[in-house]
């Protein structure tokens, strides 16, 4: 296993890129710690697969280095990198049995028969296939075949990393949860470095210890699910994580107050140095509440019942704002909205600004 370092990395699919816009991956430095379980999350086209292919060696970056531990592997072919990969669609040998498919990577590396037998049986148990080990893969459902691909990706214990590229796309929805849980178990049992690419926030947040969020070819934040929720480093993280995402309001920040465009004042949880650029405050719908008095004027437009809470969509001085209210609390007729000051984040040109005393205890 190895720490994976991306040094001064950038990639353009064009031979002669002219501007930053020509780069699918903008210049970045990033470290994937040995044994970490990471999700690489972002919207379609943000560069996730490009980044994964650079790590696996399917693609040579146009700039920068890839290090496995201290070894520079930037130009090394995939076969030399000692990694396992699981793709979006199953890659199985139809004419082989499930057992032989799972054993393939181990036989290739000359492992002995008794080790192969016990390891294959262990993996088969984890993916729920021990009863069909001797069946040919041909004729199995896409779902079952993808489970074989997952199993084969995890069968080797000596890999530097396991890379998953949207591995659960073809899996039945109710199986997804189970397989993700099994992947997590495998991670805690064997400690492999795992990088799991997805555009689905639920998948990312339930799989990973650290979620790496990409936007337009950049890593905009790496953090725990809680950090992404509480302190999104970029407005994209605010929008993308959460359902619905964060509310943003244009503001002018003065010390521990934000002045909204309509002239209303919002109390902030910290004191801010003068902030330049396009300044906004970001408030999660979960950190806003409807009240009878105080706060700011709010007009309810629609109330949606979403299980354990209600989502109230409305307007604050002409701007759309979403509020999450607990089940059982009457909201109809509440004319104002209040925000929890310590939960408000401040952004300048989309990047989060920390209050002066943040981190000081
Ligand atoms: N082989 C290629 N040649 C030229 N451009 C490419 C190639 N592969 C990807 N791109 C472009 O690079 C950018 C990043 O694509 P990439 O596939 O890495 O994104 P992604 O986040 O994995 O998206 P998706 O989830 O849709 O697979 C996109 O603008 C895409 O059009």
Automatic annotation (TrEMBL):
It holds the Pfam family OB_MalK. Residues 4-241 form the ABC transporter domain. Keywords: ATP-binding, Cell membrane, Membrane, Nucleotide-binding, Transport. GO terms for molecular function: ATP binding. The keyword Kinase does not apply. Belongs to the ABC transporter superfamily. This is ABC transporter ATP-binding protein. It comes from Paracoccus methylovorus.
